């Protein structure tokens, strides 16, 4: 039984694919905020995977991330998601991302569990 305060952990190994890049090229040779955000969503999704039924799927609804320090290529970032709130089909987690004792990022993710059929209708392209 999952309860408030429970945690799930995901370890993200930083590679060059995680570096901050835009159309104009490499910005920084460290883990990007975008890559950390994706890893944070995965850490929160670990709860969704346990909660959802076979005919359901999760979808992201919110994300806040405060990037505090760099994570370098070759480092392992440990993301710990803590179940903060569950209201109906909404799952809200706070998270920390650390390399050893160094805080890399913290924030919150929100996901919603929906029936796959309903989600398919929501995500279907609209005809104009």
TrEMBL record:
* Any Pfam family the entry gives: FlK
Q: What InterPro entries does the record tag this protein with? A: FlK, FlK-like_dom, HotDog_dom_sf
Per its UniProt record, what SUPFAM superfamilies does this chain match? Answer: Thioesterase/thiol ester dehydrase-isomerase
The chain positions of domain Fluoroacetyl-CoA-specific thioesterase-like read: 14-117
Task: Tell me the protein's name.
Answer: Fluoroacetyl-CoA-specific thioesterase-like domain-containing protein
* Protein's organism: Pontibacter flavimaris
